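Milestone M4 deliverable, item 7.
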Amino acid sequence: MWDERYSSEEYAYGKSPNEFLRENFRAIPGGKVLCIGEGEGRNAVFLAQQGYEVTAMDGSRVGLEKAARLAAERGVSIECIHADLATFDMGRAKWDGIVSIFIPLRTELRKDVHRRVVEALKPGGVFLIEAYRPEQLAYKTGGGNSAERMVGKADLAAELAGLRFERLEEVDRSVVEGRYHTGMAAVVQAIAVR
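Output delivered:
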């Protein structure tokens, strides 16, 4: 599905970074950042432009090829890793920051990914996430049509036990990110520190 979505010349979610990330990236200490489920690279490239050493990981080769092109276009370097998030080894105490923007994961996989995120952060490392909440189904402006692939504040807090939240809130906001995320949206946003 994702190779197909990313196969056009157009960037499915645009070339600009996610607004929550753009407004809050300074919460991530300088150093190595992993962007999981990064798709076509808009967030990874933005972070590289801010001086981070960025790794973009995604299950779509097509998306990562576009990420590499976007990085070259913007004059920055990112490492691209093609892998399945279900089996990808993030390492232990390896990253200064991990970024997750609108990744639609089944509940059990999401819980496992979040467990691995906690382990993969260095002490003082930051996890920055924005995800759709189940209330997003009423807006129909992105994120698919499965509440199981969305998450609320309480579940996120439980799944990221071991991190200290600097921010954890549910908000409704206008999201304008390419063709597939446009309009009012029900999201949960978190900045959490190991």
